[in-house]
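In the previous chapter we treated chains in isolation. Here, by contrast, the input contains two separate entities that must be folded as one system, with a combined length of 713 residues.
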Amino acid sequence: MLRFTIERLVGMAVTMLLVSMMVFIIMELPPGDYADRYAFRKYSGTGVSVTEADIQAIRVELGLDKPMVLRYFDWIGNIVLRGDFGQAFAFETSVVKVIGDKVWLTLAILFTTLIITYVVSIPIGIYAAVKRGSAADYGLTIFSYLGLALPNFLLALILLYFANRWFGADIGGLFSAEYKDAPWSLAKAWDLIKHLWLPAVVLAWSAVAYQIQTMRATMSDELNRLSVTAARARGVPEGKLLIKYPARLAINPIVSTIGFDVNRIFSELPIVAAVLGLTELGELLLKAYLDLDMYVAGAILLLLTFMIVFMNFLSDILLAWLDPRIKLGA
Amino acid sequence: MTDATAGKLSAQEEKERQKRLKYYSASQWTLIWWRFKRHRAAMVASIVLGLMALMGIFAEFVAPYGPTTRDTKYIDGAPQIPMFCDQNGCSIQPFIHGVSTKRDPVTLRAISIPDPEKRVYVTFFAKGEETRVLGFIPTNRHLFGLSDPQAKLHLWGTDSLGRDVFSRTMYATRTSLSIGVIGVLISFVMALLIGGIAGYAGGMTDNVIQRITEVVRVVPIIPLYMGLAAAMPKEWSTTQVYFAMTLILGFFGWPTLARRIRSQLLSIRNEDYVVAARLAGARPGRIIGQHMLPSFTSFIIVDLVISFPYMILAETALSFVGLGLRPPTVSWGVLLQQAQSVRVIEQTPWLFIPALFVVVAVLAFTVIGDGLRDAADPYSEAR
C-alpha cells in the first residue's frame, strides 16, 4: 500500500508540473504583456504620456524582460516556495489576497455538490438496476438524457426563477446582503448553507444523470453473478444482500471517477457562478479572463486543476483500499 | 443449394432463403444501416437533426428577415402566432392581426398594440428582402411571409432591438452546427495523428503521449477553452474569431478519441494481417490507414457523433459568457446572451427559444450516438 501511494504521489507531481507549464503558456497567450497592461491601466485617462522606455522600465522592474523559460521558473518557484502567485493588477494587490477565502467557498460548493451527487445517484442507480425495464427505469433514462442536454446555465436560470417565486428574491449568490462583508460567524455559516443548495443542485445535475447510468449498468452486471444467486438461495434478506454483494462492487466505477466528476463540476462552475452571482473562484476566473488579469486566471486554473489531481489521487487510494486487486494489477 | 432443391421449396421458404441470402451477402455498412433503422428513437433523431441542418443551410430562404434587420415598430414583441379564426369569422388562409403603434400615455414610449380589425394574411414563398441563398443564389422569395409587404411576421417575437427571433435562430443554427462540424473534424484529425502514433509506436513514445493526454484531460475543459478564447485579440474580425473558436474547440477535443484509437491499434498491432503488411514493406501510414483503421471505423464514427454535444455545449457556454463568438455573428450562445437574467424569463421568455434548439440538437446527437453504438458492430448477437 505504501509503495502504491508513493507511486501515485510521484505521478501526481509529474502531472502537476506539466499542467503548470500549460497554464503558464495560456497566461502568456494574450497579446501584449503585463507591463503594457499595467501601464495602460495606471496611466490611461490621467493625461500622462507613457513612452516605450517607461514600459521597458516597468518590464525590467517586474523581471518581465527575462526569457520565457526563466520567467516560468520565477513564477512556479514563487508559488512552490513562498505560496506567492504574483500580482493581481485589476485589484492592485497580490493574487493570494484576491483569491483568499474564495478557495474555501469553492471547496464548500464542491463537496456539497459531490455529496448530493452520490447520495442521490447511488441509491437511484441501484433501484433502476433492480427494477430494470420498469416505467421508473425508462423515466430515469430520459432524465439522464436531459442531464446531458440541458445546458447548466439554463437550468440555473430556471431554478433561480422558481426559487425567486417560491422563496422570495434573496436566493442568488452565496450570502444574504447583510452577511456579505460580515466577518465569519455561526450565523454567516448558516446563511451560506442556506444558499449553497441551489448552485450545488445545478452543478450536481449532469453528474447525477451520468452516475445513475454508470451505477445502473455495473449493478445490472453484478446482479447476474453466482454469488448473488447463492446468497439469495441461503435466504439472505434482499436489502442486506444488495448492499453486501453487488452494490459493494458496483460502487468501484463511481469511486474511480470522482476526479472526473470534480473536473466536470469545475468545468461548469464559471458559467453557473456567473448566472447565480456566486462569489467564488469560478466567477473570479471568468472575471480575470475578461479583464485579461492573467496572474489571477493562471493561479485559479492551477488551483482548480490541483484539486482535481488531488481528488484523482484520493480516488485511486480509496479504490485500492476497496478493491485490493487494483493495487496488485498496477 | 442447387436449383433443383430450390424449386421444391414453398414460396414461404423461398422468401426466407432470399432474406437470409441478402443478409449474408450484405456489406458491413448495409448491415449497420439495417440495424440502425430498427432503432426508432435514433431514426427520429436523425430526421430532426436533418431538418435542423436544412434550416441552417438554407437560412436565407427559411428566415423571412435578415439576422440584423430591425423592426422598430415591434420591439420586445411577443410571438405572433398565425390563426385561422377571430371574432370576425374564420378563414382558410392563416392570418395575424396587424400592429399599430401608439404612445404610452404615461411614459410616452412607443408601444405596439395588435389591431384586431386588421387582418394580414400569411403566404408561402412570399416576396421579401433580397438575399443570396447559400451565398450565391439571389432571390427575394422566402419560405413564408405576409401578403402585405409593409407588415412583418414575427413568429417567435422580437428582441430588445426589434430583431426577429425566428430569423436569428435560423442563422444561429447554421453557425452553431457548422462550428460543431469543423471542431469535430479538427479534433478527429488530431486524434488520428496522436492516437495513431501512440498506438502504432507503443513503448516510450506511447508513454510520453499518454502523459500529455493525461494533462489535457485533467484541466477543467471550459476554463481551459476560456483561457484560450480570452487570448483572442479584441480587434479580430468576426470571421477570424469564428475560425479561432473552431480551432480552440477542435484543439482540445481529441483526448477521448485519441485514447480509443490508441487502444484499438495496440490491440491489433500484432495480428497476422498487420504483421504481413509490415513484412511486405508497407509504410506505417499505409498500414494504419489501409489495414488497421477499417477494422474499427464504425466505432470512430460513434465517438465522433457523441463528441458533437460537447462541442455545441462548449460553444454555447463560451458565447453565453462573452468569451466566444461576438455579435454581429449569431450563434445559439450569442442569442442566449440576451437571456441571462430572471427578468428575461418573466418579461420576454421567447428569447429562450434558441435554448430549445441547443437542447434538441444535443439530445438528437446523443440518441443517434446510442443508435449507432448498437449498430456499430453488426456481427454481434442481434437483440
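Residues 35 and 382 of chain B are 9 Å apart (CA to CA). The longest strand of chain B covers residues 110-133. Compare these points with the single-chain example from earlier in the chapter.
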